[in-house]
Design brief:
81% helix, mainly alpha, 6 helices, 0% strand
Amino acid sequence: MAFFDGMYPYEIIVLFAGVLLFLALLAAFLRKAFSNQSYAALLPFFVVALAMIGFPSVSAINIGGAVIQLGQQTQELQEHPENAALRSKAEVTLSKVNSRPFSNPATVATLAEAQFALGQEVQAQQNVDKALAVGRVEASRLQDRVDAAKAAKDTEAAVNLGISTKRLLSALDEAEKF
């Protein structure tokens, strides 16, 4: 899922645990409220549940923002390769997101582009290979959805998915040429 892309496994676990805790607390709160019992002891735990939900969510938003910022910095760096301050900013941003477990091909390609602009060709090639491999898997999934739409006689979906599949395969073929 796109929301979880770049999140460490412990962050995903904390997020789900926070949601489960919140739901359990909500059920206990409603039970106590409708039976006219005191529910004041439950209120601090709501803060804990919200913190458990909020931390990974804020982390995911920060990661997404850093990837966007990295893309912009890379573009500027390609326009002005002699700018040392811009190079330094891009290196700092890349170091923030480089260790994250990304699976989105566009994000991995952004990392590769930044690495290449910063002269890290080996790491950039590894990320390009990863993006191409994930792109091929996505293309086969799209083709499966095209086949399912054809079997369901949903012509419009089959055509739209087929076009998307062809575009993705074309982009992958172009990328492999480099």
